[in-house]
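Reposting from the mailing list since nobody answered there.

I have sequence plus structure tokens for a pair of proteins and want to know whether others read the tokens the same way I do. The first protein:
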Amino acid sequence: MDGGKLPSELFESLVYNISLLLVLVGLYSGVWHRSGLRPRLREALDGLIIGVICLAVMANPWTLRTGLVFDVRSILLGIAGLFFGAVPALIAAAMAAAYRVYMGGIGLWTGLCVIIISVGLGLLWRRLRPSLQLTGSMRELYLFGLVLHILMLAAMFLLPWATALETVGRIALPVLVAYPLGTVLLGVLLVHQRENVQAAHRLAGSEAKYKALFDNSNDAVFFHAMGPGAIAGKFIDVNSVACERLGYTREELLQLTPVDIDADGMTNAQRAALEVLARTGHALFEMVHAARDGRRIPVEISSRVFDYEGTPHVLSVARDITERKLADERLKKLSDQVPGVIYQYRLYPDGRSCFPYSSSGMNDIYERTPEEVREDATPVFGRIHPDDIKSTSEAIFASARDLSVFHREFRVVLPRQGLRWRMSDARPERLPDGGTLWYGIISDITDRKSAEAERERLMTAIDQAAEMVVLAGPAGEIKYVNPAFELVTGYARGEVTGKNISVLKSGKQDDAFYKSMWEALSAGRNWEGRMVNKRKDGTLYTEESTISPVKDPSGRIVSFVAVKRDITEQMRLEGQLLQSQKMEAVGLLAGGIAHDFNNILTAIKGYCSLIVKTMPEGDANRADMGEIMSLAERAAMLTSQLLAFSRKQIMAPKVIDLNATLGDMSKMLRRVIGEEVSLSTRLSPGACMVKVDPAQMEQVLMNLVLNARDAVSKGGRIELETEILEPGADFFAARPGLARGRLVCVRVRDNGCGMDAEAKKRIFEPFYTTKEHGKGTGLGLPMVYGTVKQSGGEIDVASQPGEGTVFTLYFPVADPEQPARPGLEAPPIESGTETILLVEDEDQLRRLGERLLRAGGYTVISAENGKAALEAAARHGRPLDLLLTDVVMPGMGGRELALALTARGLVRRVIYMSGYTEDTIVKHGVLEAGIAFVYKPFTPEALYAKIRAALDGPADQAKA
């Protein structure tokens, strides 16, 4: 971009951003500030909304170069600190900082610094110059904006020096011209908006009070002065209802006094009411108004005295009670036909009470006659349940005190009916003597209470159910969900009520699936099945659902009830179990193959060794025999990998530091992967001590690195990491085979081609490979899997096509071991004169063993199975020097044979041999202490060395 175009483009971008900011803030301050919230909640919501506005302007930046962007967040955050205070400003700053970290790039630290400077300067200015946020001085707002953006330009020098100079040189003029003006505009806008909102609130409040008093009242309202002796003056104001009801114009009424519209003159009741009004400042009484046309209008007057312009005035509300009077008459006629009891209840100033009127329903509700309670209400209170009498009395006195509607549900204990529920609703009025009179009705709600209790029990059961319960309308709109639904989906009840059940759709089921389901439900049939749905956070889960139609008495479907169970974890565990069973079956097969194959390889290597010894040095066939031996070694390696996968290999575990292992291997690994692929290590600062077989662990790491090398292209990257973790219970619940506690984590990460889901499912299967033909045996990763599992660890793999692969190994942290004392090793001896009992069920191997042992000078007694070996040892007549036996044999195995011979004193020392071990001599793949073992396939030299070590070493190192 050339320098000439830059200011213009930057100015345009800044004007756009400032305009967007002004519009958003204008809308916010013009609409949001009309709502009434508690201050703390208001501050938090202010911060969130300002943060959202900030994110909106940050989403439309002007980009100088990749990672170096400019927007007007400094204006918004500075004004936020100045006008809104610490809490909103800091919340908005945190949101802006999080988004800037997400954007990343070369300008990250500069951007964060600008955010801190903007909020900090705004808060500091607010503290030092609080009047600015009230007056909105344009000069001071411009000074504030200029200082803020000079500091913003200074923050550019957090960039590399050359970039900072170039950036400041290119943006200084637009920034120092546009940004302060934007600050002024935003500040002035907020001040004006606040003034307008406050003025509108004051005006609206005043108008609302006046309108509520005069225009919106259903009753006639009169306002007049009160002179000495409670003499009423002329009306000062009246509402339209008063004019319409009495037939006067407003001007005519304002020439009259309350006495002029009194139809009956001053009665004793009115004099008492005026006395109460003068004494207490308020009164409630009845009178009859005289309309202009002579009509008599019974009214209920509620008057209150208050001070207005220094003198007492009266505000009276006159309610037309014509209908109520007629209703009283009708009520009297109908009350006996209404279920329950219709009543008047009077509370005297001295605390006495009675039911001046009650319908015949009193006989059923309280099992008392109306006459029994007309003068004294005590018989009724004697029927109220002892646990409810106090709260009911308190509610009566509260209603009398506040003249609030009395509503109460309570229990009664009746002689004939027993325990019953009653509900009373009554409206009070103040009587001239200061007492209170209620008009109300008491109903029997025993059946409703029983139904509510039953429903409560049902709802409690549903709310506590582990399964999700959803009630939906006929169109699928959600009416109710239980807490289990909220827990599984992440949606609160209020968030989904009224929404269609399709809010959970994941897109994993096609239209035909839903069509079939709705066809069944619409036909009135139940539907059962599985489906994949989506939680609020976007993650998917699998559920088992049973959906049933709910019909009304006419058979019409009015709703659906669904009982759902989240089976995601169950399916994952089932998948793990199936995979584990499959791997175990393959492992058993691989172990059996390895056993037979190792026997064959032992024979091949042994006979080759015998033949080579008979050939002269110059014989051309020696090279051919060497090739045969080399191929046998390669075949032995394959069987070793098969046994590693099936976890049947024998381990020699030691406590080692994986940091040291990776450090020692890194140089060799770099040579192996070549110069076109980079290898880096990031090791935990603490020692990563684990108990594993060092050689096998090196092979595991080698295989993973080589596998990563094959996955990356030229210029690829492989990373080795170690870390010590302390996972939570959920981690171990997903990996039940892993010992609880601190773990050493090893990651082998590459940025190669990655794998799809199908490949990830099968990578640990023997002979499965994604490599080209001839470039892999398909046993490397199975060997890794078997070794890690046999070592008490776990292995996870994460990969996506095109995004690389991460293999993660977990091992329990081990305590360091005491180093073994160094000793002197004697040179191997290949011959001896002792007597050896050789037991091998394979004829070829047994004959080979006889030849090798006799060639070494030993006396050999051979047997094809355990029974024959016992008989041969018994015939020998004296203890044998050594038992050399295969471990896995039909009938009696090698361990059983060795224990039998030892118990009878027929053998002193034992060497086991096998190409595949059962649990007879190993525990979890680790050879039992004191067991001498030679692994098939072996060479004659290895056999001779093991025999001499067993015969010449301590007896407890070659025990049965």
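The second protein, same order (residues first, tokens after):
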Amino acid sequence: MRQINPISTAKAISLPIVLLAIAFFLIGYLDGTSIPLFANLMAAPFMQGNILHLLLLAISSLWLISYSQRYQRDWTTFTSGRPIVSASIGYLLIAGMIIGIGLCTQHLILDSGISFDFQNVLQLNKIALISLFAILTLLTALLLSSLWVVRGIQQIMPSRNQRFISIGIAIVCSIPLIFILHFSFPLPALLLIITLFITLLDFFVELDTASPAWLILWLALLTAFTTGMLFKFHLENAQKDRLVFAKALANPVDSLLQNSLNQFIESLNNIRAADQEQIQHQFSLHPYLEKNYKLHIDSFSDDNVGIGWHKLSSNESYNTYEVRALSKDSQFIQLNIQPIFTLNKRVLFQLIPNSPFINPPYGFSILHNGKIIAQRGLQAPAWLDDQYWQKANNNGLYENIDSQWARLYYSNTEENDYTVMITESLGGYIKPISLFSYLFAILTTLVLLLFWINPKLKIFPATPGILFFGAPSLRNRIQLSTIALTLAAFLLAGLATVAFLRKNHLSEQSDRLMEKVNIVMRDIQQSDIMLEEKALKDLASVHQVDISAYSEDGSLAATSFPYLYQQQVLEPRLPQHIINRNTKRPAIVQEKADQLDYISAYIPFNRPNSAISYLSIAFSSGEQDMKKAAIAFIGNLLNLYVFLLLIAGASAIAVAKTITRPLLDIGEKLRSFQLGKNEPLEWKTKDEIGQLVEAYNAMIKELEISTEKLKQSEREGAWREMAKQVAHEIKNPLTPMKLSIQYLQHAQKSDPERARAMISRVSQTLIEQIDGLAHIATSFSNFAKMPKAELKEVDIKAIVQSTYNLFTEGQPSEIAIHLHAPPQRTPVIADPKQLTRIFNNLIKNAQQAIPETVEGKIDIELTINDKEVVVAVKDNGSGIPTDIESKVFQPNFTTKSSGMGLGLAMCKNMIEAMNGNIYFETEVGKGTTFYVSLPLKQKTDA
């Protein structure tokens, strides 16, 4: 085991920590920066820092993983003899990262002050998007680091049961961590998520089967967890916001109103008390008042009442302000001002702030003494049932939430206060589904981008994309192509839809503006009014548009909204290109004031004895409405396409498996191809794959026919060659045998006495030669009729020992034979008789290979590894020349002066029949080693 150097390890760990600390410290120097984005990021608090710290934490987490993977590659250094402890720490680290990301999400939603409008996730502001991007980056880091850690754990502890024990230990140890960090996610659900994530990850690493389906599974699991957290904490935060709004309605305060009232009271000093028209006109000169409040004029003559404004106590006229002013004729003017709960549709009014009661994100009902005095938004009568208010009266607050609505009942127990019900549409389950789709799309894009960059830059060497996608294959290409086509289809459909909606909406808004122009111009012509400020204001109020009149030279003559021109928000001159136009047709122009986009129609105006030459009518471009409609459509389309993506991914996996299965079968058949031993494939459909399978089956059928012909030809050729060899071997002794018999016959005739003396010697010679011929015939017969191996479990060590004893007991000691074998039993599946013949042949050959001038030495060594046993027979003979090494196992090849050259050929055939192998290593002048390897019988074998 590699030893850990504490000094180098400390240096390696301290470097990233120091760099991170410096980076976090330097963020403080950005305080007060003029860069808007950084300023906004730093303005949003997050834990003890700000959102910029969260973003840095997310990015640095990826860098830290990359750094760690480059430094730490051998996980066995962490075992210290206790792998279960190391594994538990690794799993606890994963659980801690999940809890840490959850804690970041909790603080982000509850404490940062950032508005997360999950009703329209595609309209989140930049700060919210950056925050979600940071969370998704942390999730990516979690996936990459978890995969790396679990792979390391399985290196040090391959036992599945031990790993499950370690997972259990990590889960139990994470419980106090949850309470210490005050993570408010439901404990059973959180433990289930941690257990599911770690267990599936462990199973995935152990399975070692790469597929894009696994990546989709991890991304969907992490996205679902994040969506659940975001919605859970968002509901908590929304409850606080609803309560704040309810309290504001129950005790209404409008600081902008009070400032405007002070200015309005001063302007009344120059107006007569009876001139109500001038009073209304002065009221309209204060845009905030005109937009958000309505004015009631009452007669009043009490000289003892003070001048100014005061807010009336709670009554049926909600949030009413009473204004008293001294007029020009020293009369008192009494006015009542009440809030408006409907949004003014005049486009330029959008440049004026709304009161807290106009266009809030909630619906509400305000009650006084049980009677509704103000209401906005959808309110079902059943929601105001007494049973809910009775629950609210217990502690002043009650909230009822279901999948569609959140209803908050607030009843302040102080005297003369209002009671309020706040309603918010939660949108049902479609909202979390939309958020899931949105986050899943971003997380998938982020992860795929990292996996695309990683092979080029080697950022994460321990977690390459091949772990999820596998080696390049047709199946993966089909799956990835299907997913890519689905994403591309969504992108193209979204762009085309937005372009179509925008074009169609602009055309529709232009048509609506022209209809409004025709109506306004008809009223002007029929009433024959003077186009002064008051008349334009009346027209603007009736038709809910903003109207301006211009003289012939293009200067502003009158307008329904002088405030914006006085504040230089709008230019008080007609655009020059309108003056230069030589047509009486209205011109429609896209315009912008501050951040407001709108359209204006410029109409040439011809009336006798009038100084007005042009009118402009400002109308909403509907850009925001168009964006909302487009975003709503894209959101629904995104939901559809995410689930289509999941369905397409699953379908691609099934289809790719169906398409590639016969190809894999064909590939497997080709890898295991043996002449004469191949089975045809089956494919029922007559498609392209069916044609391929049919061609494969036809090929193996033709090969079988060709194989049989080849075998027949080879057999005939082999027998012819062998017959020539046997004939040659037999002819060699026949000639001297014939000569000996003829010589004996001649001696019998010429010298019977000498013939009797020769009979014994000649007979012995003939017997020896006949025995030689019998040996040749036997060898030839054995090679031609190789007996079928009778395979069974045998102890190869015992067979080697028996052969060793045969050659060492009672044998001459000129050649030393040594046996080296392990003490344990070595079972193999083989034929014991054939093994004995093989080892006899190898030892005999080794003896014959040693020259008489060399002190002979033969070493027999038996070794065992994980899957096989190897017997080596080594001699110190003259070795085998290089030019004949390839012929050693060929039949009828020999370098000896006698023999058929069939021994090693027979040994090779017998070893291969036992699923073993025989090979050799040789060095000329130093000797040869023959190796016999056989599969070791495993314990699981039957």
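Reply #1 (J.P.):
I read it the same way you do. The longest strand covers residues 596-604.
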